[in-house]
């Protein structure tokens, strides 16, 4: 069991650090918590209050890849739907954490802001080579890992980016799709 956990953690770290073929939600996720998973914490010796992991190195985006599509424009959260296709308010408790402006840069770094331009998070990102998973690693002010989140991608085109979150990570039948559309909104400076 421990070996399987270590292998899974090492595979996740490899993906985040760009050892996978291509590099990359805020938001969406197999783990929609704002702290490291217990497995990651126990193996890495880290916790959500005192992260010990160092930041992965961002990787540049290759042209023509799903990563290039994500990096091609700033994104704004514009809607959310549940597993039945019902619209959810952006203020819904299962949506609000994922709402804002996202800037995925071609150098593999990202910044996110709330809709009223308050800093939300920053770090490194990647998208799997097959375009099915986005990974973000949020960094604290000291440059240490605050959390890593992998999110299934539902749609990724130049007109829409949708990823899936799970309010209860153990129940994949209940989910929320977070919908983003391109925006001309510029990232706040400061």
Please, could you describe this protein's structure?
- 38% of the residues are buried.
- This protein has three helices and nine strands; from the N terminus they run αααβββββββββ.
- It starts with a helix and ends in an 8-residue tail after the last strand.
- It has one domain (2-46, 59-182): Domain of unknown function DUF4822 (Lipocalin, Beta Barrel).
- Helix content is 15%, strand content 31%.
Count the DSSP helices: 3
Strand content: 25-35%
List the domain count as a whole number.
Answer: 1
What is the average of the pLDDT values?
Answer: 78
Largest sheet: 8 strands, antiparallel, barrel
Question: What portion of residues is helical?
Answer: 10-25%
Compute the number of strand runs: 9
CATH C-level class: Mainly Beta
| End-to-end separation | 46 Å
What's the CATH topology label?
A: Lipocalin
In CATH, the homologous superfamily goes by the name Domain of unknown function DUF4822
Low-confidence stretches: 1-51
Q: Tell the overall outline.
A: globular
CATH architecture: Beta Barrel
| Major beta sheet, strand line-up | 1-3-4-5-6-7-8-9
Order of helical and strand elements: HHHEEEEEEEEE
Radius of gyration: 16 Å
- Indicate the structural class: alpha+beta
Biased composition (Low complexity): 22-49
Protein name: DUF4822 domain-containing protein
InterPro entries: DUF4822
Biased composition (Polar residues): 50-72
